[in-house]
Amino acid sequence: MNASELLDNLTQQGVKLWADNDKLRIHSPKGVMTPQIQTKLSEIKAEILSLLKTNTQNCNNQDNQYLSLKTIGTLISGLCSQSTTDFKSPIIDPTVMAKQLKVTFRPLPKKYQKESIIKFREKLEHQLQQAGVEIATWEQATKELNYEFNIPLTPWKKNLKTRIVKSDVSAVVDVERHPNLISKLKIFVAEKLYQIYSKFVWRQKQSVSKIAQFISWAEENIRPVEDPTNTQIIVLTEIDTEFVNPNLPYQKKIPIGVNTLVRTFSEIVIGVSNTKISILNMNLSDSTFPVEEIDDFILKSLIPKIYVPILPLSISRFEISQYDPCQSNNAIQLVKLGRELAPTELLPSGFKIDDVIKRESHRDIVDWMANGRTGVSYGFVAYAEPPQYVGPVEIPAHEWENLSFVEGLSGNEVRQNQIGRRYLKIKIGEEYGYKQIPDIWVISSRSGSNKTNLNLETDILKIGLQDRLLLQLPHNIDPTAGDIRPSYDIYVMLGISLAASLYAPKLIAKGMPMVHFHGYPSINWFAPENEYCTGVYNPSVPCGTYESGVFNFLGIQDLANQHGDNINLASLIEPDHGTNIIAHDIEYLIARIKAGVEQGQIELGGKHFPSLKVNNNSL
User: Fold this and answer.
1) For the chain, which domains are there?
2) Under 8 Å between Cβ of 152 and 308
3) pLDDT by residue (tens digit) across 500-520?
4) N or C terminus: fewer CB in 10 A for the chain?
């Protein structure tokens, strides 16, 4: 491996390397810098330094229109001031994502006879491998696990043996398994034992791995994994014609989709028929693909979902304080926005986990994965406050040249002044500018709340982005309460708000309302002047990932470069997920969305998505 190849390989794995005079500086995620790589870097240090300096010089000289993905990812993730191994430079190219993945296929059950699924499974394995995904055999991907099982209130012990999926495996592909009478009896016994253990033995919540190990002996649909935050379960089953029916109201799709995921104990369910493929995850998309488009399905839809699992942003990532929402006019406006949109039915209430998942063991697993959330809702309403600056909003080129570099970030893109305010070198159209990175504050509905009937005193959170993430809770609210959690889509809100501040300041100058729903507008809905759409052809990364935040940032950047700052409304499409609609004014946004619904040009579900591909300029 030569210097260029090694540098590219390390960059893709989130390693930061930069030249500091004749010293090579490195910031690496845990586990990447093996002794072999360190030795190799020492051997070719001079070549690496030369390459880094050349790249920096090229960046300084080239007419670059966009910020680097690394810079965008660092800014919207709020990790600028931290030396942390949590940061991973975003990858938004599915062909590059594929090369980071390892997937295994669980052996089929005995006498499995669903030919259409068997054939699809073979095709899927072949196409994933062709795309660059590493395919591991079941024996390579798993290891034997033995654990002792103590039966409560008795001296009896039982040694159980199973195979557990190793932590470096990205996904397990399996088929749906239907329990027979004996299996149902085993499940009943396992659940009763789990309830006894939870109450009398453990007396505290266990990890997902521990719970899965405890009940997996009884359930064929549970595949114990070493790291449930890294390894997703993908289940192949017969396509649910009711769920993918475009005429079925979305409110009726919610229980079908949720119960399918719970029943199969999986993060992704792929429905298969002789003519169509469907894909379902917790976003509850009803996307379908013709079987002849399996390559596009794998590259643009499946691989991004495997690469970035749906995981909420942990509350531990925020610096927490409190505020009084009753004294915030923006919070009051957000409550109004939700209530005004109630008649559109674009923001369904979702479900309470306890209502949908009946078994205690399953509820505990979902609770752990959802970071303490007790419910799931679909969509959000938010309001970005006007950006906050300290000192000049924009500076001339000669002042930029005298600013200091920021460690870990490109000196060609980000610098800071003596009081620590950071400035970006950006290009809009044909002009370069040097703009201050403002403090961003977004008023947001909390995760799981009823977006169309928000309680001003308990449902409105305030999210801040400086060089770190900030979270302000309503005063007198306990931050450990399970229901007080930020939305899954925090990175999206922050990415849109920061990009608007930099590239379309008129859009956010007086505040900017945002609405996200799990559907799409028709291409005919947009007004001919100053209303735009982008993102239709993006890879379908799920919500809760900062890759989705990056795509939305790039969407605003792209629209500003095409149309300037005269943007009244923008629709930022997230394929297989939904739409973010933003505007310069709350009343304008409400009126436009209501008109679209009344005219049948905005609906939940995927009905209007194909129309957006017609004459659409997207990223």
Assistant:
1) 3-62 (1.10.10), 102-307 (no CATH), 315-393+401-612 (3.40.225.10)
2) no
3) 999 999 999 999 999 999 999
4) N
